[in-house]
Amino acid sequence: MTPRTEQPKILIIDDDPANIRVLNEILSEHYEVFGTTEGLHAETMADQVRPDLILLDVVMPNISGEEVCRRLKDNAVTLDIPVIFLTSGTDPERIITGFNLGAVDYVTKPFRPPELLARVATHIQLRLARQEVAKKNAELLEQQGLFLHMIPHDLRTSLAIIRGYAERLLRQNREHHDRCESCAEQINEILKGCDRQKALITDLMDVARLRAEQYPLTRIPVAVEYLVAAVMQHAGSILEPLRYRVTVPAELPDVCVDERGIQRVLLNLLTNAQKYSPPDSMIAIRAWQEGSRVIIAVCDQGKEIVPEEVAKIFIPYYRAFQEGTTEGEGLGLYIAKLLVEAHEGQIWVARENGRENRFCISLPVAEC
What we know:
Blueprint: E1 9-13, H1 17-27, E2 32-36, H2 42-49, E3 53-57, H3 65-74, E4 83-87, H4 92-101, E5 105-108, H5 113-175, H6 181-211, E6 219-222, H7 224-234, E7 244-247, E8 255-258, H8 259-275, E9 283-290, E10 293-300, H9 307-310, H10 332-342, E11 346-352, E12 356-364
Parallel strand pairs: 1-2, 1-3, 3-4, 4-5, 7-9
Antiparallel strand pairs: 6-8, 9-10, 10-12, 11-12
Helix pairs in contact: 5-6, 6-10, 7-8, 8-10
């Protein structure tokens, strides 16, 4: 932990000046001590002093310690300052009330200096530790922001250069009458490799943004029927329309989603269904309502997903083995999971009726 050059600050709120003097004598050697006898002024003084700890008397005229604590915890500036109650009794109900209001501890009167110093030191150290963690998290987020901006930009620039030269070589090869077929094949493999790496960079960027809650989502009411139809239309070159049987009732309520994000989830589920099911089998898309949720299911007749795979299938970089399916980095379903959860939804897979794998997403009915 980074050492502090200044003493931690303690604010004492007690209507008895004698108590403030006693506490000051005990604490002033190690801490910078401030005091007030006016509970009504506590919030303003805490805002000005910004103490690392507040010692708060429970019984005061005009306003109770519990009410002062409640106000401090309702104030965004002072809510994270730890509060220790000062009490002359040990009434369990009152102590529990204090904890429920956000107090971290209590000290009984008359004060026992070793106990008081120990309790104060513990909560000061906890607060300083939390502040240090918050500082490190802020630094990590800043570094993550630089990573999200700079590194993918540099990688994409390098890939664009490689792809540009490969396309140039391919054009030159085609322009010559003595075309080299093997050269063309090799150049095409370079281009495919560039496309795969570009897609991987995009996926890794999206994973980082989703985990950092920095992925841009614009949630609006959207009809489920439209979501499915849009995916089928926009991905016509990837999907095989004749294999799909769509059952989405038009009367389903709208869902509150980022349209592009959920379409990406559906496209991932549909392409996975094509990849892992027999070429001549049908793939069903179904939707129904359950309470305040709409369920969208993609059902295929592929190989049974055993329980061991179910537990891993949404883990990053995991790919279920199936002969002839080697493309992809195993991030698609993980990104789908993160996107659905960013919508306060759920995603899961189950084997239904012993004959089909059913990938389901649950989304909230539109209230946005």
